Amino acid sequence: NFLQLTPAIGLEYAQQMGLSTIHQNDYNLASALGGLTYGVTALDMSQAYGVFANQGIKVKYHTITKIEDRNGRVIYQHRGEPKAVLSPQTAYLVTDMLKDVARRGTASRLNIGRPVAAKTGTTSDNRDAYLVAYTPDLVVSFWMGHDIPKLGRVSGGSSSTITFVNQIMKGILENEEEYPVRDFERPPGISPPIS
Q1: How far is CA 90 from the centre of its chain?
Q2: Is 54 strand, coil or helix?
Q3: CA distance 111 to 12
């Protein structure tokens, strides 16, 4: 018994993972290639790819974790409600494929000295260039482009984003005490690759 993946099911997953700009006109085959009425925001992309980085669990992004008064008494503490959106196996398989994008694909110049998964993307005529890259500890979503399409294109397409994301990720992850180098955990039920 197979479940047929339709635009509706794919967009339902996209919404559950964090894309907030899905419109009723998006329920068509073009959505599989990113043809969305209102596009996506870099913040939404970070939220969605964070589900892959977090083994299928969505933790809503927040800015303030805790507020204390001058005596150290907690006035406010963020209480997240983690939600399982994907199975750990599905998240791992997608991550494993996206690690290949960073190893030998369109993001192969992404070199941060640790395991990383990545997805590049461009729009027609290179008006927009995206790179989302993630480790088990960090998700970076980077967009380059023009809000007004007639202003031109991004020279080099999505490869031009790699220089920036390399610097961002290396700068954040350089403290190995806080962010030890680690790979994505293989969950039970996934066979190791055949050598």
Answers
A1: 15
A2: coil
A3: 33
